[in-house]
UniProtKB/TrEMBL annotation:
Name of the protein in question: TetR/AcrR family transcriptional regulator
Domain of life assignment: Bacteria
Repressor is among the record's keywords: no
Pfam family, one: TetR_C_8
Residue ranges for the DNA-binding region feature of this UniProt entry: 32-51
UniProt source species: Candidatus Eisenbergiella merdavium
Keyword terms: DNA-binding
InterPro entries listed in its UniProt record: Homeodomain-like_sf, HTH-type_Tx_Regulator, HTH_TetR, TetR_C_Firmicutes
Record-annotated HTH tetR-type domain positions: 9-69
GO-annotated molecular function: DNA binding
Length: 184
């Protein structure tokens, strides 16, 4: 990595850090470029070299998280325990970002974006596991399992991830396994 690349990365990180800090106390539509520039110690033209506007910062951060989640999902999908472990490890490593981006101040649709990201990755397995269900039924089963699991994971994040992830994974596997066993 050359010096110019390092500066670009450093500037983007400073902008994102300032943006996240502001999101803790303000809604995204109340944050100004001026505030981010002051906190990041950059000028407005530097901000606009990297982002179109404030919503673009949020959008790019979400895209980065969803892209990383999708890439990390691929090798873990055959085993639900591995999948949950990967998701929770990622959430724990970047807990503040998930918590802030899923808050009322940021994008209220972010949890749904995570849901659909995972849906696209997991759905082919649902087709193989439940060939006797219609597409509509498989969709309902996925929604039931994912939204219940998502609620538990959201609560785990909001509670500061105090409960050991292994206990949460065990609970999710038992709850989801019990629900799935009713379909067989």
């Amino acid at each position: 990595m050359n010096v110019a690349d390092a500066r670009v990365i450093g500037t983007r990180n400073a902008i994102r850090k300032s943006f996240l800090e502001l999101l803790r106390n303000k809604t995204v539509n109340r944050i100004t470029v001026r505030e981010i520039c002051e906190m990041s110690r950059i000028n407005r033209s530097t901000f606009y070299k990297h982002y179109r506007d404030i919503p673009d910062v949020l959008e790019k951060m979400e895209e980065e998280i969803l892209s990383g989640l999708t890439e990390n999902l691929k090798p873990t999908l055959p085993r639900m325990e591995s999948y949950l472990d990967m998701v929770m490890t990622e959430m724990k490593a970047r807990g503040d970002i998930y918590l802030i981006l899923a808050s009322e101040n940021a994008d209220p649709d972010f949890p749904a974006k995570i849901f659909w990201c995972c849906y696209r990755a997991v759905y082919p397995q649902f087709e193989r596991k439940f060939p006797y269900l219609t597409d509509a039924q498989r969709d309902m089963v996925y929604r039931f399992l994912a939204q219940g699991s998502g609620g538990i994971l959201s609560g785990w994040i909001r509670d500061g991830m105090q409960e050991p992830k292994e206990k949460v994974i065990d609970l999710l596997l038992r709850l989801n396994g019990g629900a799935v066993s009713l379909l067989q």
